[in-house]
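Supplementary Note 3. Input sequence used for the single-chain structure prediction.
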Amino acid sequence: MTDKIEFIDLKSQYAALRDNVNARIQAVLDHGQYIMGPEVAELEKKLAAYAGVSHCITVSSGTEALLISLMALGIGPGDEVITSPFTFAATAEVIALVGATPVFVDVEPDTCNIDIRLVEQAITERTKAIMPVSLYGQVADMDELNSLATEHGLVVIEDAAQSFGASYRDRRSCGVSQIGCASFFPSKPLGCYGDGGAIFSNDDVFAEASREIRVHGQERRYYHTRIGVGGRMDTIQCAVVLAKLERFDWEIEQRLLAGQRYFDMLAGNNNVSLPVVRSDRNCVWAQFTVQVDGREAVIEALKAAGVPTAVHYPIPLHWQPAYKDMCRISGTLAHAEQVAQRVMSLPMHPYISEATQRRVVGALIAAVR
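The predicted structure, written as discrete structure tokens, is reproduced below.
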């Protein structure tokens, strides 16, 4: 019997980390500080150092990280935030939740990241921030975006839900703009065993505001200086991330190797469009996403061969019922619309073997003939 192919293999990861994970969780059970326990501050210190910034504020999810960031900046009704239409709904969701307008700019067809060349023409007097998404694990053109933002007096918030651990011009994701927001959802490169996220910044004032907002806007207990949310990351989830952080660099190396193996195995196949990674950065492959024609038939063929797949993302946000009438579209979104019909993600995780990848690629090549 052929071994089952896992799309994301959290079981193998846990097996490798069992002792550390269990010890970290047991420590929380022993001290009983399930909310804002000592592991929270410990993780924040280590993550800030990892990203190369002064402040890390852990929060209850990647979505909450984006939401709290917008709230801390005072962005609200009448404001606009420029972002990508080709991403998970949370990116636009938080903009709408604070009462601002998502402004969608098209993506690059090869990286699927926001096209910096189109951002400037989307800026108006209402624009307050640019929120690029580091899609699939590759950081967007942050230096160019930062320069553009400085010129126009805007803030750049990196939606780094998929890219924590990625490198960009010798810096790490979440440390390449004024604000970075990470997710620790279980399937992310650095994940917990539930929901979790973090905000990263070098801005002391912004960091203080974010810390207050995550605890219902409290400056101190029962003294509320601003409107906030219940946005804390549970101590147990911080403990899990602390255990995983010890092996994270090794896992990133394995992700890079696995990604390169896919490139090598699929090189020269004209029926599969491979993702492009810019020369000044890497990609941590939160998803390894290719593009194919006739996607549904290819997915069915792979399923029959025992190969799991996923589609990130089949419907661009400007076509979603919740957003189509409340967003602003800058220019054409032709590339986002096209890639949404063609993208397909293959099994990817640090524990995937070369033999498994050969099975995946063999089935894919057969399916696209």
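The chain has a mean pLDDT of 97. The chain has two domains: 10-105+113-241, 248-368.
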